[in-house]
Amino acid sequence: MSEKIVTAAMVAIGDELLSGKTKDKNIAHLADMLTTAGIELKEVRIVGDEEADIVAAVNALRQRYTYVFTSGGIGPTHDDITAEAISAAFGVPCEYDDEALKIMGAVYEAREMEFTEARKRMARMPRGAAHIRNRVSVAPGFTIENVHVMAGVPAIFQAMLDWLLPRLETGAVIHSKIVDCPYGEGTIGEGLEEIQNDHSDTVIGSYPKFDGETYSTQIVVRSRDTEAIDRAVLAINAMLSEIKAAKATKVQR
Amino acid sequence: MSEKIVTAAMVAIGDELLSGKTKDKNIAHLADMLTTAGIELKEVRIVGDEEADIVAAVNALRQRYTYVFTSGGIGPTHDDITAEAISAAFGVPCEYDDEALKIMGAVYEAREMEFTEARKRMARMPRGAAHIRNRVSVAPGFTIENVHVMAGVPAIFQAMLDWLLPRLETGAVIHSKIVDCPYGEGTIGEGLEEIQNDHSDTVIGSYPKFDGETYSTQIVVRSRDTEAIDRAVLAINAMLSEIKAAKATKVQR
């Protein structure tokens, strides 16, 4: 089992995510995919289409985490400013990439579509960046150092991530087990804290559910060590049995 | 028409949002509600249940924006650390609030439920904080200076926001109109950029849609001035008519 820890952050870019016009789908997808791959997503920032905000977010995060993934702002319209912003973040020129122009030009020609100036915008990237290919869109994403720049359209974001992820370094996968608990957090809180203290080789999360009338709880035990998870789950189940027995006694009285 | 500009940021707190276990629902809801109210959401950060990360996010954002809203981490279990983290961010003690203890104690007594130590945790807040009431949960959220701390359970987050929002200062509402465009961004990109340049009293956003085969675009024109929006929409419609006529001529030839 690899014990290496690989971390990541995401910057989701787009005014539409902050105005409520669009519900983001890429954050949850990236979180799922990274967790499965053994990359720990530590922070997400959503920023608008403003260069200074993108630069600040990317520069803060790329120094703290193994990888930074961005979504959005690499299309052909005037509000797509991510390529410029990432170039500014790294202090390198934003240029038309010859290889991208060639690939895209050939595809548009084959489709009898005009390779407009707008479409050519999608070939711009920071000098020295490498392509992120995908099987959906003609235009590539790009990687510069540890920053991976992908599209905002979910189908394209997912296709780019599918291509990229097997090429990245990954670490020990964090496994998890879920215990569905019929009691609210107020009932289990003290017992669960004790169990967390006794099982410090796991991280125990407690997620309240409210159906409009009563509370229940989903307890999630996470660890890189599956045996440690099993030990904590045993302790949680024992606690839940005790609570059940105590409630039964109370009713009989 | 109020010309005041009121801004906001959000910090969504919880390991479960970063592991992919839970799909956040509060960000999109807050974005919708703030936009309608005339508060401009400028940035969102998602962080895990780690005090240093919460403190860093809240302190960075509360100085930049009129308001900061947080979700998550104010429940009764050991992984609910938001009250401590916010207290640390402001450098004040985190204490049991007398009024909260009194209100919550009375409710639990009426329900014949034990006021456990875990439940009492939900009465802790930074010294000097004011309550955010709600019609769903017994435990209050709280406000300290310009930071509003709310629950992560969506039904409770929404109820707290319903109570809070009418009590906040709001600014000029940003209105918007949507133009559904049957062409992809590569076709309209250049024309749209010209229109944006001619209509700098609006912000024109362009959102590609991809149905697995063809692209279309949703064009969104935003402004505090509804007449400015109408002028830009007219120009966009004229451009789309021109493209349509050009395509028809091409087909006939």
Question: How would you describe what is shown here?
Answer:
Chains A, B: This is Competence/damage-inducible protein A. Chains A, B: It comes from Hoeflea poritis. Chains A, B: InterPro entries: CinA (IPR050101), FLAD1_M (IPR056596), MoaB/Mog-like_dom_sf (IPR036425), MoaB/Mog_dom (IPR001453). By secondary structure, chain A is α/β, with parallel strands linked by helices. The first copy, chain A, folds into 2 domains: 161 residues, MoaB/Mog-like domain (Molybdenum Cofactor Biosythetic Enzyme, Chain A, 3-Layer(aba) Sandwich), CATH 3.40.980.10; 78 residues, 2-Layer Sandwich (Ribosomal Protein S8, Chain: A, domain 1). Helix content of chain A is 42%, strand content 24%. Chain A contains 9 helices and 11 strands. The first copy, chain A, has a 6-stranded mixed β-sheet, sandwiched between helices. A 3-stranded antiparallel β-sheet of chain A has the order 9-11-10, with helices on one face. In chain A, strands 4-5 form a two-stranded antiparallel ribbon. In chain A, a hairpin with an 8-residue loop joins strand 6 and strand 7. In chain A, helix 3 crosses helix 4 and helix 8 runs antiparallel to helix 9. Chain A is elongated. The N and C termini of chain A lie far apart (52 Å). The relative contact order of chain A is 0.13. Strand 2 of chain A pairs antiparallel with strand 2 of chain B.
